Amino acid sequence: MTKRNYATVNPCVMCQPMGSALAFKGIENTMVLYHGSQGCSTYMRLHLAHHFREPVDIASSSLSEKGAVYGGRENLKKGLRNVINRYNPKVIGVATTCLAETIGDDVPAIIREFKEEEGIGDDLEKDIIIVPVSTPSYGESHVSGYIKALDAIVRTFAEKTGDESAEKVPNEKLNVIPVESLSPADVRELKEVFELMAGDYIFLPDISETFDAPLREDLPKIAQGGTPLFEIADMPNSQASLGLGTVSKNLAVNYLEESHDVPGYSVPIPIGLSNTDSFFTELVKILGCPIPVKYLQERGRLLDAMVDVHKYLYGVKAAIYGDPDFVFSLTTFMLELGMNPVLVATGSKSRDFEAKVRQIVEKINPEFEPVVLNGIDFDTLNDAVSQCNPEILIGNSNGRYIAKARNIPLVRVGLPIHDRVGAQRILTVGYRGAMEFLDRITNAILEATDTFTAPVQAEPTVHAGKGKEECVEGIR
Amino acid sequence: MKEKIGIVDTLEERKPYITRKQEKEQEIPLACDNNSLAGAISQRACVYSGARVVLNPVTDAIHLVHGPIGCAGYTWDIRGAKSSGIETNRTSFSTDMKELDVVFGGEKKLSSAIDELVGLYHPPVVFVYSTCIVGIIGDDLESVCKTASQKHNIPVIPVKSEGFKGNKSDGYKAACDALKKLIKKPPEDPTAKKAPRSSETIKPKINILGDFNVAGDVWLIKPLFEKMGIEVIVSMTGDSTAEAISRAAEADLNLVQCSGSMTYLAKWMQMEYGIPYLNASFFGIEDISLALRKTADYFGSEKMKQQAEQILETEINRIMPEISRVRERVKGKRAAIYMGGPAKALTLIKGFAELGMEVVIIGTQTGKKEDYEQISYSVRDGTVIVDDANPLELAELLVKQKADLMVAGVKERFIAYKLGIAFCDFNHDRVVEFEGFDGFVNFVQEVDASISSPVWKAVRQRTLIPEAVESENKSGKIEKAAVAAGSEKKSGRMEKATVKEMISEENHATECKGILLKPKFLHQKSETAVESQV
């Protein structure tokens, strides 16, 4: 493996403000404004538009040289004023970029000043809610940006519910907060589960409509849908919060527990059999209601599907990469299927990732020892792939270069997916998601081997890039 | 503050940037070339982006982004710029600055990253792009690059592209400044004023400036010049290598296609090496013809002029049946153009004219006053001209101007789709060539596929109301009957033979206002004027 210490080659993460947009865009009637230079907003809009195939409007305070030298106060205020004027949003998420952070703008103070000047109060019904979140690009990744934004949203709304002395009015609702951005199809699937089981729930953020909007008679300025604001404000009154994801810290769930005594539970993102099982089991525990027959049947159907394909998948070596919790859940599923996730990697720096992955491997297949990588770029992944020799790649579309060079299939999942359609409709959660994903993986393997019986024998072909010599030698 | 005066509902400060071409009004009072308005959701990117898109197609260079990960992450392999050899440019390199680098400065990390990458890749050149925070924390890129350059004995060139230091155009300039450092003095006396070579024995040399070989465009253009006996030293920067760029000053002439990004470099080469330049476009029959003829005229060789005419005759005859077929299907449709650069916008106006289509909206991200003047001369009265447009303006304009098709980039695509309007990508993402003769065929076919897909009929009926379905069926029947009663030629696809027959019947050229085809290519007989189908 090539050892690099200084240069990042082909990044496997996006930056913090991008994550914040993924969160803010799941809130009803919300606009996002990046405090920084114009390019940040354009690039991230392009990235998201490409993935979701939807118009994605993100404003920018368009800092120029003057703003960078003298501070971005006036630009930010002007940006806010213009966004209100044009989009008439109920919420504006203001995420900082590295520029605004480095020049040291005190964004919360500027917002306070702006609200005073414009006579905007804190009333949820009457006023525009402005949520600042600090997301410099040089800190962590889009995953942390997403988590931070959710935390900021919950804090803003939870603190705005009125006077502190007021008694809590329990609402019998369940808060659901994933730590990783799910696909709109995933969110739709989960909402259906909660509708059937919990009756009343609050799902934050809800991108099921905002990032996958139906073609309507007209084009609304802000996509319809998203978590309703009164529901976010109601989150402190819920009977419990369920966090989806156990690798990254769920700041919003923690906050609700610590500040508002809403008990928080966390389960892995429900991808695969056992993760979906623990998801339903946890729901039964929290809600005290039985699992709907529909899902028990789906579970049976998933088992049936797993039996059908077990021979095609047994021992197939897979490399899985993407966001920490998502990869963790996918890995669990692959292990359940008898596959060998020889390489498990995340682009984000995540402290608990390796330990969590090792734990689940220990639990399902203790003889097996995967390479686990954390905070990597695609070049490192490429080197690791050369060593581990997987027969299939599972991850976002940026892995296509590696897959192509080695002539192995890539099953696209996660973000970004720029080179195929349907990213917004990829379903992985729940028993149904597991079945769909199982079929995709099996078919990709069958396609690659073009046989119904033999195990996969894909040998690495010409290996692009600099690891070439070692790779060719390795094959000989 | 919201009022409904003006062409579209927009912010007071945005109003000077939107205008309508009016009859008898020569001066177009359009504001442009300013920084984007805060909160207006400009479709523009930043200085870094401008520099990156221009330089990125240099295939064998290391393009190292000195900054936090985002800047490199979103621009990874961003252009569909093809390479005939090495593809180092498709790899994304970044110093991935972290908080500590911001606090203590990133110079050391940068210099180590350069050493590391040069050791691994052995590139002929390294471009180091500066980003916003590099400008703020004040890393001395110049000196780091200079030291690295001496150490490794290759050019390590700083690209001064701090995102906030202007807009995309400033990035173009930063890229050109970087290219300037790669271009070597030619072996001949560079101060001698270049005169057109009339001698038929010496092969004249040209550079193509401002073609980025998206989808392989350049590969359809170079052979045309080669057939005319001209050597193309380098195309900047599409499918170029550091070595080829270093020889650029040996050229007798520069052809500038993307004027927005490359005129600055062309002017510099004229001043420094006495190489004159001509503006050219390789999109659409009219502009390709013009480019070949202008070049032949410049060199003044009769043989070359003949060769140009021969190429044009053969190629136009070859592609015209398909152009005419599509033209029959799309003429009278209304197009909206929103481009990054003005040169592409201008050439598209002519392209649409060749298809009998009308341009109803035209805008750019980086146009300057002269560009908009030229645009205003080229469009019909009533066309809306807009600078640095935003999504809400574009959406309202598309509806108000009743556009049938929009040509733009990815961010605009979904605005059009949501409004039920056909879309054609003329940006980084396209995977088929649009330049040259076969490229124009690709373009018109895409226009046809975009406009003629039955999906738009379904989209027009977004809400399912049983009665509405009934009435739509009825009107559909009426339309069908009308078509059947009319000319047979208008009904969909035609047999090849019929098309050939039509070419000679149709007066294609006169309808394409100002098309510069030789009389023998003009079709003799004239049919009735294009009736608008809108």
UniProtKB/TrEMBL annotation, chain A:
| MF (Gene Ontology) | nitrogenase activity
Q: Which PROSITE patterns did the record assign?
A: NITROGENASE_1_2
Entry superkingdom: Archaea
Q: Which UniProt keywords apply?
A: Nitrogen fixation
**Cited InterPro entries:** ChlB/BchB/BchZ, Nase/OxRdtase_comp1, Nase_comp1_CS
Enumerate the Pfam families for this protein.
Oxidored_nitro (PF00148)
Domain Nitrogenase/oxidoreductase component, residue spans = 15-445
Keyword set includes Magnesium: no
The record's PANTHER family line, in alphabetical order, gives: LIGHT-INDEPENDENT PROTOCHLOROPHYLLIDE REDUCTASE SUBUNIT B
UniProt protein name: Nitrogenase FeMo-cofactor scaffold and assembly protein NifN
